[in-house]
């Protein structure tokens, strides 16, 4: 999902004016004469089966009210006047990346969501609001939440139970602060490290992605009955399907090179690699919502050159996902995704609805969407049966979440946000994700008595080690969240530590050097290689390796990055090399393995290339000759 602030202030201003004007033009209660729902209405009876409640409520709704349920607006568009939730009969509101309340605290979030919910409950039928947020590695928009390693690091743990527990904690912290719905997990299969979303994928191997889909159980629980519990949220499997398998250079979105590009494939490959994770997501874990991808698919069977956007593919959204696989949740479009479809806005709306899209993330154009869809239905270009199907799916989720009985935030677990117990799980996740790639002379684990020289900016930068999707969409360097940096973790284990970000401090007398290299934060296509990014180490990182590893007898390098980087020429200079990924708030977990408090057990969730030109390279390729193969990882004892 994109960042709401990518629009200029002028456009947002115009959109807010349009929202207010159009809201009054969309009648929310035109239709049946029923002024409201009697207290005895079957849909208000929690003892009745969900299907019966959905049917009863659907039969009471006007066409305008149904279309409202299919509409999702950004909080930035309604915050100044939540009454627009009522007048537009909105079914959902979201926080995009960087879209946070002025009081970015647990109670600040809960108060904001409850304020919006109060507006939703003023509608004729009092249908509660569904609030969505990107909790992709913890409740990461909230300052003070527990921030876990990103998914590729979790893939390296090979620990499905830990992934389940991570997402249970994330669900608990998220729901305690208001939102009941998360746009996570990403179950894409990333096949090219040049993609700026690589860290959001568990692996290049669909089998490992499927193994880690315990994340869905952590979010939602074991059965639909668990959704109403305050430790669970509605999950979103994304991005359906093929977004990690797009061809480099195929993107037409701004300066992106691979994100939102085209998956050029035959159906057999697509089913084996890209579609495979969605089958257990639906049939085993009963995921409540799925987000179709920005990307397109171009079937080679009928010749390359006629790609179809996922939001327009009736074959994949309806025929395959809903009918063949059996998905009974609802589809939510990505940020203004339908705007990328051919034709005018009416054609874009009509195409996506008829393809099978159920709810529409139209952050700043909710009124226009409602008016357009209403006109399309009245003109007979969208069937009322398609509208009823979409709304029934959305209402089903709201009933299962228990929102009709408990619409406001259950703050029972609000004190657990960022608690020591939750952070301890995150620290263990960091330790289990560390992948030891070289260990000449058994340099690791380090001894606490050694004099340690630490170099590199990423050793002591919380924002860099958390990466993108941390407080803001792109993330940022600096002390942006509470937690422990890698340097602080090292200092917890050793008393004699010298730190020099640029390795300018004298190295004399040091027993071992630890150089922390890596990337600075990015998200989505902004991080695509070729869009201002490269897989190569920075000049500063190479200089630090050269200086420290030549001056100190024993030298360890840690890579803090969202994907493997090119270290082929630098590797001989190191005695030990560790992939530390993006560990999140608990950098002390890196030192837990570094000093032997925990053993190194992590294994690569991605193939490590010798050069950038080797990409894409994946396990099973012909002439497979990487620097480190998929699944590689040395072990140490505790």
Automatic annotation (TrEMBL):
Signal peptide: 1-30
Residue intervals of the Glycoside hydrolase family 3 C-terminal domain: 435-634
Domain called Glycoside hydrolase family 3 N-terminal: residue spans: 62-396
GO biological process: glucan catabolic process
PROSITE patterns: GLYCOSYL_HYDROL_F3
Disulfide bond in keyword set: no
EC id: 3.2.1.21
Annotated catalysed reactions: Hydrolysis of terminal, non-reducing beta-D-glucosyl residues with release of beta-D-glucose
Keywords: Glycosidase, Hydrolase, Signal
One Pfam family recorded for the sequence: Glyco_hydro_3_C
GO molecular function, one term: beta-glucosidase activity
Family recorded in the similarity comment: Belongs to the glycosyl hydrolase 3 family.
The protein's name: beta-glucosidase
Organism: Actinomadura verrucosospora
UniProt lineage: Bacteria, Bacillati, Actinomycetota, Actinomycetes, Streptosporangiales
